[in-house]
Write a structure and sequence with these properties.
Blueprint (H helix, E strand, L loop, with lengths): L2 E4 L4 E5 L3 E7 L5 E8 L51 E4 L10 E9 L22 E8 L5 E10 L4 E10 L5 E13 L4 E9 L2 E9 L3 E6 L12 E6 L9 E7 L4 E7 L5 E7 L6 E3 L4 E12 L2 H16 L13 E3 L1 H4 L5 H14 L3 E4 L21 H4 L3 H9 L4 E6 L3 E2 L4 H5 L19 E2 L5 H17 L4 E4 L21 H19 L4 E4 L9 H4 L4 E3 L6 H11 L8 E2 L2 E2 L12 H8 L5 E3 L7 H23 L1 E4 L9 E7 L5 E8 L9 E3 L9 E4 L5 E3 H6 L2 E3 L8 E8 L4
Parallel strand pairs: 20-21, 20-30, 21-22, 22-25, 25-26, 26-27, 27-28, 29-30
Antiparallel strand pairs: 1-2, 2-3, 3-4, 5-10, 6-7, 7-8, 8-9, 9-19, 10-17, 10-18, 11-12, 11-14, 13-16, 14-15, 15-19, 16-17, 23-24, 31-32, 32-33, 33-38, 34-37, 35-36, 35-38
Helix pairs in contact: 7-8, 10-11
Length: 736
C-alpha cells in the first residue's frame, strides 16, 4: 500500500521507497500541499502558519479571519481567482467573460494500478520486477459556480520513488468554458534556498547544463515552437543550493509531452517557492463545452535526498522500464550505418549497396536509407508529402534493394518526415489547405518546407496510409521519424474561429495517434525519434520511440556536453549516437576514431560515414569497436550511469562510468578536452562499486579495492594530446 487517506483529518499521504508526499483538505475545503521529501511519519500540517498579511486577500467564507489567505498557503492545484497572486496552475474564462475559478474538494478514489491517459503517452506499471505495486489516487475538486470538476491524478510507482501527476478537467455545468492555462503539476515550498537547473540550447548544441539561484520573481523556460524544442528541454530540477552529484535534496519534473510547454519557478514575497510544469499558455485556448473533458499531459515527479546522480537514475529506470515500449525496449539494438553524411541526396541503389557491403564486412548490422528515396526529392525544396518510392533513383523497387542488403546479413531501415510538406509536391498541389498557413498571409518557411495540419484526422490518415504501404512493400525493420522545423502560421481550415487555440494541442494528439498506429500494427519495427536531432527529445516521444537521435551534431567533443546534459533526465538507451566522419561536418573538428566510438558507445551506437573512405587501420578499429560494444552492452545499458566530471566546468577532462547495480562490473570512460605542456595528473573518484570487493582491470590485470577507487580515486594516464580517450573495465573477483 502506497497511498493512505485519514478521513478524520482528510489527510492524503503517498509513500514511496524513500519519499513521502502529503496534502490535506482544510476546514474550507481547499486542498493544501503539506510536504514532499524524504520519508516521514505522521501529519506535516504543523508546517502551516497563519498570519494577517497585508494586501493578501481572504476568502469570503473566512469571514473576519484575516490570517487565512490563499496568497500565502501552499496549494496542490492553485487557480486564478481565489486571491492567490502567484502564478496559477489553472486559468479559466467563464461563459460570461469573467476569469474566476474556485476549486474545493469533492471526492477521491484510491485504486490499484496506474492510470492511463486517452490519446496521450504516460508511464505504465508494467509487469517487470518494479512497478507491480503501482497505485492511483484521484482527487476531484469542483467549482460550484461554473460546474467545472478538476480531477488530480497521481500515479505511484513506490519501488522507483516515482510519482506522476496529470489533470482531467470536465465541464459539468450548463455553459461553455474556455481553458486558458493548464499546468499538470505544481509544487509549493514554504521555505528553502534552491537552485533551478534547466537544459538550454540550440540546433546542434542541445541540453546545455545551466544552474542558477532561485531569486525573487519568476524564472520561466518553455517552447512556443510547437515541439519541446532544441532551445529548452521539458525536464527541470530544483536542487538545494549545496546539492552535488552525491549529496543534497533534489526535485525533478519531466513532462511526458512533445509539444509546446512551460515550466516556471517563482519565489514570492515571503520567500516561498512554486514550481510548476504544463502546457504553454501562449497560443492555447481550449473550448470546454458542457459535458466535455480535457486531459492535461503527465508530469513525472521524483525526489532524491542523495544528490543529482540518484535523481537521474530514478528517471533512467522509469523511462527505460515504464515509459519505453516495444520489442527493443530492453534488448540490444542493431549497430547501424546511416548514409546521410556519406551521400546526402547524391545516391542510387548501387551506391547504397556498396556502402552496406563495406559496412557488413566490418560487422555493422543495419543499413538505414536517409532522406531522398521518395517522390521528386533530390534537394530539400521538394517531395515531402509524396511518400512513394523513387524507383528510377534507386534503379529498381525498394524491395529489390532491401533483399540485396538482407542478403549481406543486414537489416534495413528508412527515414521519413511525416509531418512536413513541400510546396513542390503532388500532395500540396492536391491539398494546399492541408498545410498550416494564415489566410491572407504568406507562410513562414522553415528548411524550405511547410507543416501539415496533423490536427485533422484525414491528414493523419492519408500520411499513415502512404507510409504503411512503403513499410508493407519490403522488409523494413527500422523507421527514423524526423521533424525539421518549428511550427508557425498555426491555422486549421477545419477549426472554427474560436477553436484555433486548440490546434497545436490537437496537432500533437494527431502525431501520437499515428505513432500509436505504427506501434500497434508494426510491433517488430524499431522507431527512432528525431527533430533536426534533439528538437523533440522528451519523455513523451520515448513512449513511442525508445531511442531519439540526440543531436545533428555528431562531433565527439560537442557530444560529450550534449550527452552530459541529456543524462540528467534520460537513460543511455534513449540516446541515438553515431561515429561520423572527420573533419566533422558540423564544426570541422578532427578527433580520433577511437574517441568518436568511446563517446558514441554511451548511446545506441552506430556509424554515419562512408566506411570505404577510411584507412585499413581504421577499418580494423571499427570491427573491434562493434565487437567491444556488444561485449560491453550489458554494463552500458543495464548498468547505473554516473557522471564523474562536469564538462561545462572541467575544461581538461570529461569522465563518466557505468556500474552494474550489484557492483559486479563497471566501465569507466574518459576523454581529454584540452592538452597542455607539462600537464597535471587528473584523478577521478569512481562510484557504484562494492566497497568491500576486489576488482580486476581487464586490460592490465591489476587489482583494486572498490573502497579505494571510490574514496581515493584513480589517476587518468597521460594520453598524449587533446581529444584522446581512455577506458577502464573492472570486473569483481569472486570470493573463494
Amino acid at each position: 500500500m502506497a497511498i493512505y487517506y485519514q478521513e478524520q483529518e482528510q489527510l492524503f499521504t503517498i509513500h514511496t521507497e524513500h519519499t513521502t508526499y502529503q496534502m490535506q483538505v482544510d476546514r474550507y475545503g481547499y486542498l493544501l500541499h503539506l510536504y514532499y521529501g524524504s520519508s516521514v511519519e505522521g501529519s506535516m500540517n504543523h508546517l502551516l502558519t497563519y498570519e494577517d498579511r497585508g494586501f493578501s486577500g481572504n476568502p469570503y467564507e473566512a469571514e473576519a479571519d484575516r490570517t487565512y489567505s490563499l496568497d500565502v498557503l501552499p496549494q496542490e492545484y492553485p487557480c486564478q481567482g481565489t486571491g492567490d497572486f502567484r502564478s496559477p496552475a489553472l486559468v479559466v474564462k467563464n461563459a460570461d467573460g469573467t476569469y474566476s475559478t474556485n476549486l474545493k474538494y469533492l471526492s477521491h478514489q484510491i485504486r490499484d494500478g496506474k492510470y492511463g491517459l486517452p490519446g496521450l503517452p504516460a508511464v505504465y506499471a508494467g509487469t517487470e520486477a518494479t512497478g507491480n505495486g503501482a497505485q492511483t489516487l484521484e482527487i476531484a475538486l469542483k467549482d460550484e459556480a461554473n460546474g467545472l470538476v478538476v480531477t488530480l491524478l497521481y500515479g505511484v510507482l513506490p519501488e522507483l520513488d516515482i510519482i506522476t501527476r496529470a489533470v482531467k478537467l470536465e465541464n459539468r455545468g450548463n455553459a461553455g468554458l474556455e481553458l486558458k492555462k493548464v499546468q499538470s503539476a505544481c509544487l509549493d515550498f514554504l521555505y528553502g534556498a534552491y537552485d533551478w537547473i534547466q537544459f538550454y540550447g540550440r540546433h546542434a548544441m542541445e541540453r546545455n547544463f545551466q544552474r542558477t539561484a532561485v531569486q525573487h520573481g519568476s524564472q520561466v523556460i518553455g517552447s512556443r515552437r510547437g515541439t519541446s524544442s532544441h532551445q529548452y528541454n521539458p525536464f527541470v530540477i530544483l536542487a538545494d543550493r549545496e546539492a552535488t552529484e552525491d549529496f543534497g535534496s533534489c526535485y525533478g519534473m519531466s513532462f511526458v509531452y512533445s509539444g509546446a510547454f512551460k515550466a516556471e519557478v517563482e519565489k514570492d514575497q515571503y520567500d516561498q517557492i512554486r514550481l510548476s510544469m504544463g502546457l504553454q499558455d501562449e497560443l492555447f485556448s481550449w473550448p470546454l463545452d458542457p459535458g466535455a473533458v480535457f486531459y492535461g499531459p503527465e508530469v513525472i515527479l521524483s525526489f532524491s535526498s542523495a544528490g543529482l546522480g540518484a535523481l537521474s537514475r530514478n528517471y533512467h529506470r522509469v523511462c527505460r522500464h515504464h515509459l519505453c515500449r516495444g520489442k527493443y525496449k530492453t534488448i540490444p539494438r542493431p549497430v547501424l550505418i546511416n548514409n546521410w553524411e556519406a551521400t546526402y541526396f547524391d545516391f542510387n541503389g548501387e551506391k547504397l549497396y556498396q556502402i552496406a557491403k563495406q559496412a557488413s564486412e566490418l560487422g555493422v548490422e543495419m543499413m538505414v536509407l536517409d532522406d531522398g528515396w521518395f517522390g521528386k526529392r533530390d534537394t530539400d525544396f521538394s517531395g515531402l508529402g509524396d511518400w512513394q518510392v523513387n524507383e528510377a533513383k534507386l534503379g529498381g523497387t525498394l524491395n529489390s534493394l532491401v533483399e540485396r542488403i538482407n542478403g549481406l546479413g543486414m537489416k534495413f531501415g528508412i527515414w521519413v518526415e511525416p509531418e512536413m510538406i513541400s510546396e513542390d509536391s503532388d500532395l500540396y498541389r492536391a491539398h494546399p489547405d492541408w498545410a498550416f498557413a494564415v489566410p491572407g498571409r504568406k507562410p513562414v518557411r522553415g528548411r524550405s518546407q511547410l507543416v501539415l495540419d496533423f490536427s485533422r484526422k484525414e491528414v493523419v490518415d492519408h500520411i499513415y496510409e502512404q507510409i504503411s504501404r512503403v513499410l508493407d512493400s519490403a522488409r523494413i525493420e527500422y523507421l527514423k521519424w524526423d521533424m525539421n522545423r518549428s511550427i508557425t502560421d498555426v491555422f486549421s481550415c477545419a477549426a472554427a474561429a474560436d477553436g484555433q487555440g486548440a490546434v497545436l494541442y490537437r496537432y500533437m494528439l494527431g502525431v501520437y495517434d499515428m505513432l500509436e498506429r505504427l506501434h500497434q500494427n508494426y510491433p517488430e519495427l524499431l522507431i527512432e525519434g528525431c527533430s533536426g536531432g534533439g528538437g523533440r527529445f522528451d519523455a513523451g516521444m520515448l513512449y513511442y520511440t525508445p531511442q531519439i537521435w540526440c543531436s545533428d551534431n555528431t562531433d565527439a567533443i560537442d557530444r560529450i556536453r550534449i550527452q552530459y546534459g541529456t543524462s540528467f533526465g534520460y537513460p543511455v538507451s534513449a540516446v541515438g549516437s553515431h561515429v561520423s566522419a572527420v573533419p566533422n561536418h558540423q564544426n570541422g573538428r578532427i578527433t580520433p576514431i577511437g574517441t568518436r566510438a568511446c563517446v558514441a558507445m554511451a548511446g545506441s551506437f552506430g556509424y554515419e560515414l562512408d566506411l570505404s573512405r577510411i584507412t585499413e587501420k581504421e577499418k580494423q578499429e571499427v570491427k573491434e569497436q562493434i565487437q567491444e560494444f556488444h561485449r560491453l552492452w550489458d554494463v552500458i545499458h543495464n548498468g547505473d550511469y554516473y557522471r564523474l566530471t562536469n564538462p561545462f566546468d572541467n575544461q581538461e577532462l570529461a569522465a563518466w562510468m557505468f556500474a552494474k547495480e550489484d557492483g559486479a562490473e563497471a566501465l569507466v570512460q574518459a576523454v581529454t578536452l584540452n592538452a597542455h605542456g607539462n600537464s597535471i595528473t587528473h584523478y577521478i573518484r569512481l562510484k557504484g562499486l562494492d566497497p568491500k570487493a576486489v576488482y580486476r582491470e581487464e586490460t592490465t590485470g591489476r587489482r583494486y579495492f572498490g573502497s579505494g577507487l571510490m574514496a581515493g580515486g584513480i589517476p587518468v594516464p597521460q594520453l598524449g594530446g587533446e581529444y584522446q580517450s581512455w577506458q577502464l573495465h573492472l570486473i569483481r573477483e569472486q570470493e573463494e
